[in-house]
Amino acid sequence: MDIRRLLEQVKDNDLEVDQAMDQLKNLMYEDLGYANIDHHREIRNGYPEVIYCEGKSDEHILGIIEKMNKKGSNILGTRCRKETYNKVKEIYNHAEYEELSKILKIKNKDIVNLGKGKVLVITGGTSDIPVADEAYYTAKFLGNDVVRLYDVGVAGIHRLLNRLPIIQEARVIIVVAGMEGALPSVVGGLVDVPVIAVPTSVGYGANFGGLSALLTMLNSCASGISVVNIDNGFGAGYLASMINKLK
Question: Fewer beta carbons within 10 angstroms: which end of the chain, N or C?
Answer without folding.
Answer: C
